[in-house]
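Re: your question from the hallway

Yes, I did run it. Sequences:
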Amino acid sequence: MTSRKVEVLVGLFVALAIAASLMLALNVASQGTVGQGDTYTLYAKFDNIGGLKERSSVKVGGVVIGRVEKIALDPKDFTPVVTLNISTAYDQFPETSSASILTSGLLGEQYVGFQPGFTIDDIENLADGDYIADTKSALVLEDLIGQFLFSKGSD
Amino acid sequence: MKNLIEIDSLTFKRGSRVIYDNISLHIPEGKTTAIMGPSGIGKTTLLKLIGGQLRPDSGDIQFRGESIPGMSRKRLFHVRRQMSMLFQSGALFTDISVFDNIAYPLREHSNLSEDLIKTIVLLKLQAVGLRGAVNLMPSELSGGMARRAALARAIALDPELILYDEPFAGQDPISMGVLVKLIKELNNALNLTSVVVTHDVNEVMSIADHVYILAEKKIIGSGTPEQIKQSDSALVQQFLRGEADGPVPFHYPAKSLEQEFLGVS
Amino acid sequence: MDWLAKLGQSTLERFAAIGRATGMLLGALLAAPQIKNISLTIKQIYVVGVQSLSIIIVSGLFIGMVMALQGYTILVDYGAEGSLGPMVALSILRELGPVVTALLFAGRAGSALTAEIGLMKATEQLSSLEMMAVDPLRRVVAPRLWAGLISMPMLTLIFSAVGILGGHLVGVEWLGVDVGSYWSIMQSTVEWNEDVMNGVIKSVFFAFVITWIAIFKGYDSVPTSEGISAATTQTVVYSSLAVLGLDFVLTAIMFGIE
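Structure:
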C-alpha cells in the first residue's frame, strides 16, 4: 500500500537523520584528536591542574598540536598526571621543553601551553611515553591571594 | 419467516433529548426493510444502534437472537463481519485508491492471496459497474460513483446484512436509478438482508418488502408498501405526499401572531 | 449557584476528556502490532516527518545564524569570541533544537494530524472502520503515534546539525571567528551523552505529548467544520504550552542542581 516514492523519501529522511547524528558525533561532540593523523603520548605531572579537562587542547604559541587524553592521580605521590596526545607531525621537541596550564582570554577554556626548550647537541628529543620534567601548575586565584596576604603579613 | 434483527422496546437518549421512546421493530431475513421518516429524527442513530456503535438506554437489540448491547467488544467485532454499512458519504478511505479501499476488509479479515483478492475486488467492482475506475483515488470519483464504490466495499466480505444510510440523498436521478437497481439486485442475487434508511419515498417504495415510518420518537406506521399507502394516519399521508402543512406543522413552534405583533395575551 | 454548577460541570468534563485520552492512548499502544501496519507507519513518517523537513531545515539554519550573530556581539566584548562555537552548539543542542523543532512540529504536523483525523470522523471513515470490525485505534491512531515518536528525534538531530552549520556560516565565514577555535572548543565542551542525547530524549517526550494531543483532539472533535477548526487550534495551543512546560521540568531533571 505504500508507494515507492514514499518509501524512497522516508529512506532519505532516515539517512539524513543518521548523517546529522554522525556530524554531531564526529564534529561537534568529538572524542577529539586534533589532526586525523597519528599521535604519540607524553605525560606531564602538575601540582595542580586547575580547571583543565580531558580533550583540552595542547598549544605551542597558539598552534594546537594535541589534546589532553586523560587526567589521573599518581597513586604513589598523589600528584595529577596528565596524558597528552601530540600529533606525530610535531615530534622534534627537546627534553628541556616545558608545559604549563594556561587560560585563553579572561573567561576562556584552560589549555596546556607547551614551550619547546633549547636544543643543544647532547639533549635528546621527547619520545613516546616520556614525562615532561619541567611543568608549571595552573594559577589558582585563591592560592595567589593567600600568598599575597601572607607575604604582606610577614613584612 | 425468521427475523434477523429484533428490536425490543428500545429507548435511546442523547443527553436529555429523547430520540427513541420505547420502539419495537423487527427485520426479516432475506428481505429489504425500509425505515423512513422526516430528517433529524435520528434514522442514522438507529443503524448505529444496530451496528453496536451506540448503546441503548433501555431495551434490547438482537442479532440472530444474540443481544448486541450485551456483547463483548471482541464478540461484537466478530458479529460485525457479518454485517456492513453503506454510509451516507460513502466513507471511502481518502488516502488509498479505490482498489485498496475494496481490498481493505479482505486484507484485514482474510488470509487470501493477493491474486485472489484482486479477482474478488474486480468482481465486486464489476457488480457495481466501476471496474474501470479501479485505479482512481476516491477524490476523483463523483458522489454517485463514490457511493457505488463504497457499496462494492460493503459487499466485499459477502455480509448477511447491509445497512444503507440515506443511499439516495443528494443523488441525481440517474445515480439514484442505478442505486435502486443495485440494492434490489444485490438483495435478490446474494439473498441479503437489507435495511434502508431514507426519506426518498418513491424510490424506496419500489424496492422495499416492508416499511416502517418513524416520527416523533415513535413508529407511526408499518406494513408493506401497499399497506402504507392505504394508511389512514394523517401523519403518514403527509409524509408520503410531501405536503407542507399537516400534523407536522409548517411553522416551527412559536407564539401566535397576535401575541408576537400586537402584544395581546 | 449557577456558575458553581457550571464550574463543576466543566471540571467533570475535563476529567472525562483526560480519561478518554488515556483510554485512546492505551488502546493504541496496546493494539497488537501487525505487519500490515508497518507500511501504514512508514506512510505516516512520510507525512509527519519528511513533509516537515523543509521547515525544520530552514528554521534550523536561520536560528543557528542568529545565535552566532547575537553570541558574537556579546562575546566579542569580553574577547571571548572563541567560545562562540560551544555557545551556539550548547544552546541549540540542549534547548533550541528540541523546543523549536517541537513547536514547529506542533504547528506543521500536529495541526494536520488533528484536521485529518477530525475529517475522517466527519466523513464517517472512523465509523466505517468500526463497522468493518477494524479497530480505528489500530488502523488510524497507532501508526500516527509511532510515526510521531520516530520522526521527532530525527527532525531534532537534523535541526541541530543544520543550526550549528548555520552558526559556522555566520560566525566563521562572515564574522571571522577562527574556524579551528569554533569547532575545536565546541568539541572540547560538548558532551555526547550530556548534551546531544539529552536533547534527543527531550524530543522523544515532546513527540509523545504533541502526537497524543493532536490525535486525541482530532479523535474527540465535534465532526463539523467549526468543531474541526476549533480542535486544530486547540492542538497547536495545548501542545505548544505542554512542550514549554515539559521542557522546564525535563531541563530541571537533566541539568538541574544535583
